[in-house]
Specification:
By secondary structure, the chain is α/β, with parallel strands linked by helices. It has seven helices and seven strands. It has a single domain, classed as Maf protein (Alpha-Beta Complex), CATH 3.90.950.10.
């Protein structure tokens, strides 16, 4: 990269994806009150896409104001299901209730990216994937959470497709990177077009 990228996230998978793509990147968590902001946006009847985009921008903006010369990437992902937006579950019981509601059904994952340069937004992208969950048994859900809670609690869906969570699904439509929370190909296209990375 012609300039290093600062990822406004504590997500290990996002950092790994960017580094695996050969980018020079560091990460710093942008501490915003996501739950309060999400609830406020939902009260205003914001669409899931708007919620993901707003949260991604707020994260990027916070770090861009602190690192004014940096190229800063903010990311967010929301799960949309039957008019509701799900956040990360805070307990195993909350995760089980969420997975119980989703099983046998289709839901959407919406991932947003906002890129700041010199403390100004220069690019944004929103991507969506559709996932069909299997009608898994209660026994499997219990066993799955017992094995995977430490990791699953960091995902809006209480699952990670790159781990055992893939067994929960019968089909997916959309970009794999979107499901992981970082639509990588559009980002790389933009960075290449702007000369930030070699093409």
């Amino acid at each position: 990269m012609t300039r290093p990228l600062l990822l406004a996230s504590a997500s290990t998978i996002r950092l790994q994806l960017l580094r695996n793509a050969g980018l020079t990147v560091t990460a710093e968590a942008a501490r915003i009150d996501e739950e309060t902001i999400r609830q406020s946006l939902e009260a205003e009847q914001a669409k899931p896409r708007e919620i993901a985009d707003t949260l991604a921008e707020l994260k990027a903006e916070k770090l861009a104001n602190r690192h004014q010369t940096a190229l800063v990437l903010g990311c967010d992902q929301v799960l949309a299901f039957q008019g509701r937006v799900f956040g990360k579950p805070d307990t195993p019981d909350a995760a089980r209730a969420q997975l119980t509601a989703l099983r046998g059904q289709t839901h959407h994952l919406i991932s947003a990216l906002v890129l700041y340069d010199a403390a100004r937004p220069i690019w944004r992208h929103i991507s969506e994937a559709k996932l069909q969950m299997r009608d898994v048994s209660d026994a499997y859900l219990d066993a799955y959470l017992a094995r995977n809670w430490a990791s699953a609690q960091h995902s809006v869906g209480a699952y990670k497709l790159e781990e055992e969570g893939v067994r929960l699904f019968s089909s997916i439509q959309g970009d794999y990177f979107t499901i992981l929370g970082l639509p990588l190909l559009p980002l790389l296209d933009y960075l290449g077009a702007r000369g930030f990375i070699q093409t």
